[in-house]
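The authors assume throughout that readers already know how a fold can be written as discrete tokens. What matters is that the chain and its backbone geometry are given together, residue for residue. A single example would do more here than another paragraph of explanation. For illustration, here is how one protein appears when written out as sequence plus structure tokens.
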Amino acid sequence: MDHKASVRGKVFEELRKVAFPDSRFHFDFGAFITDFEGSASAVDRLVAHDDYRQADVIFITPDNCIEQLRHRALCDGKRVLTTTYSIKRGFWLLDPSRIAPERRLYAATLDGMEREAEHYTLDAIRHTIPKVDYLVTGTGAINTKGVRFGKGHGFFDVEWAMMYRIGVIGADSPVAAVVHDCQVLQEDLYPEPFDTVADTIFTPTTTWKVPAPHKPTCGILWDLLDPHMLATIPPLQELQRMEHSRPDSQ
């Protein structure tokens, strides 16, 4: 953890030079994933990629740097699955067939998504969305091997684990990270068993393809899970109930 904190500190110092402050969190990069100069170019690279072009349902995190991507995905007719408020208000589906074109930009924002989206439980996701084709996240720091260090809370890894356990993604599901060039490191970073490594990294100037990215198949490691996360995140509570009711859980 000290190594991760050191990496974040170095990257955040450089990121502050190109980041856009958040109206609530200013430059507190431990509280949000910031937007940055050139993010539109990074998004341009992503939407030209085959993983995006072939996707129907995309999980896109509610990070500031990919608000433009959420909007473009809706305009491209793709359904966007996301979470809000640190997963505490659960999963939401933005369906462009149910959102007026003039409302899609608002729907892509943190303030607008819950007003325009439909709330989905994990049970509803697994019965109505048979497959999530692509996952996209921002992050705090990442190396060229796709190992991410986010804000330090592990939300994306928990989201991956929940979707993996209900069967809508698999070990071959592609993951993309959208970051500024200053967030991409050459040094070795060492993932935990539950860390989700990115397949592709999109920056304003470069697309990095990661060879053989590690995807966790362990689900939620309940013994290692922060008790506060379980107590405050309803989808985790729902998944725990599901797993306790599985025949093989006895």
Remarks:
- The longest helix spans residues 2-15.
- Residues 69 and 150 are 19 Å apart (CA to CA).
